[in-house]
Amino acid sequence: MTGISIHELGVAFSAKDGRVIAVDGVTQEVPERGFVSIVGPSGCGKSTLLSVIAGLYAPTSGHVEVGGRRVTGPDRAVGVMFQEDSTLPWKTVLENVRFPLQVAKVPKSEQLTRAQQAIDLVGLGGFERRHPAELSGGMRQRVALARTLAMRPSVMLMDEPFAALDQQTRLLLGAEVLRIWRETHQTVLFVTHDISEAILLSQQVWVMSYRPGRIIDVVDVDLPEDRDASVVATPAFNALQNRVWEVLQAESMRGFAQENAVPASGVPAS
Amino acid sequence: MTVRTKPPASRKATALPKARRTVPGLIGAVSIAATVGWIVLGGILAEAGVRAGWWEPDVLPAPSEILPVTAELLRSPDFAPDALRTLQELVFSCLFGVAAGLIVGVGFWKAPGVGRVFEPYLVSFYAVPLVLFYPVSIVLIGINQWSVITLASIMTAVPVVLNTWMGLRSVPPVYLRLAASIRCSPAQTLFRVAMPAAAPYVFAGVRLGVVYALIGTIAMEFTTAQAGLGYQIRYLYESFDAVGMYAYIVVVLGASVLLTAVLEGAERLLLRRRTVR
Ligand SMILES: Nc1ncnc2c1ncn2[C@@H]1O[C@H](COP(=O)(O)OP(=O)(O)OP(=O)(O)O)[C@@H](O)[C@H]1O
Ligand SMILES: [Mg+2]
Prior knowledge:
The complex is a heterodimer. By secondary structure, chain A is α/β, with parallel strands linked by helices. Chain A is 39% helix and 23% strand. Chain A is built from seven helices and ten strands. In chain A, strand 4 and strand 5 form a beta hairpin. Chain A starts with a strand and ends with a helix. Chain B is mainly alpha-helical. Chain B has a domain at 88-276: MetI-like (MetI-like fold, Orthogonal Bundle). Helix content of chain B is 77%, strand content 0%. Chain B has helices spanning 18-22, 24-51, 63-75, 79-110, 112-127, 134-141, 145-169, 173-181, 186-223, 229-238, 242-271. The radius of gyration of chain B is 22 Å and the shape is globular. The two termini of chain B are 37 Å apart. The A-B interface holds A 51, 54-56, 74-76, 78-80, 82-86, 88-90, 92, 99-100, 103-104, 131-134, 151 and B 11, 172, 174-175, 177-178, 180-184, 188, 192-193, 196-197, 199, 273-276. Magnesium ion binds at residues 46-47, 83, 159-160 of chain A.
């Protein structure tokens, strides 16, 4: 079983103006093969939470278990897709997708078949020999998705993978992710700041608060499993969206006020 | 203060590399043609100047007089020993300097505290003409090619260290997080992620370093050595053989143009794949 369980997790950073508590007392569970989204205002600690689950940061307190085993460092069974463009510009699409397999010492012929499969799955067939500089932002994120999929992780951590893209492309790629998830049934934890994207994709939405980053609401999405983008027009979808929006709006305003208040008092008048 | 050499068009500069993107070969050919054009133009001016009596032939003899002597020089048996000596010094200084520069640059990156302590000294090396330490080098090592190689290696290493370090520091953090998440070993992280990402900076440093090695080598030979192209230039200068001296200068100029072209070609070849073929 490869669910994720988070126990009393806390992460603090020491910054110039004191300690920043990025994640505070988070206790949550992603069931095996579940698809959970996290929404929250910018800077609330979503990336930090994901990094800790990925084993890239050690938490200040609490711990995370993936598949029942305590996370102490990165694990190849946990695939991570980053918020920033992480395609390596000196490698072709195929080389990028193959890279983790080479590092994991997968036999060469298997590397190629698995990479090719992943490339086809994200719809980049025909672009294998291109370099990232020749691709659009959306295509590069597909490369990153293919690279993560080629590892065949049992858990996928996706940090706003399509945030930099326009609404239409984001919805299209979201639909791709959903289609792939239905095929592979991995456990997915998906970070986004787009409420409709979160509801459209996931079975459960966690709403995170701004500083300290806590999970302040958990919304179960009881929409049909095989839904597509047309569900956006239904009243059930609207009701969910309103519920998340209400919580988030109050939170975002608090975060905005806080963010603008802190530097104003810290900067000496000149 | 940091001395930074601008790396060639990285992938972030989206507007700039456009021309290169479409016809990289052509751009290279154009720049070589332009260089040759300038040299030819300079030659014609020099020729015209002497003929018109703007200056004495002792100051700058006519190219029509220098070039045949250069051709003769290249064929004469006296030329090879000096050229070989200079070449040897140059090759050794580049090898040692670049290797040391890469190692120290990577070391600074791995131990940022150490780097921050040494950076000001390294940067000040740019301002100090290292050639001044040649006497010290002679006293320590003796009048032989190793005193030249030692100092020229240091001159080469300085820009390589600074650029390697700078390049590694500017690697997007997400590449390193990616490397960590797929469990790259420290060596894999360095050689397969960090160094390739820093390559444009590193190459800019290597190019500078190699040019410094050439300048340093010739300059040190010029002052005290007993052999080498720089030594010949000085020897002929002191024996008032202007034409002979310029023949050697032409050889050194030709070598430096060739060296620059080779380095540029190598850089284009190695970084080509980041943009479009
Ligand atoms: N390495 C670090 N050092 C100090 N503070 C950090 C560090 N990383 C993150 N923070 C702080 O922790 C908080 C949470 O950052 P995080 O990147 O997790 O936010 P986020 O929810 O992912 O935001 P966004 O939606 O903008 O990506 C921020 O206030 C940030 O300033
Ligand atoms: Mg983030």
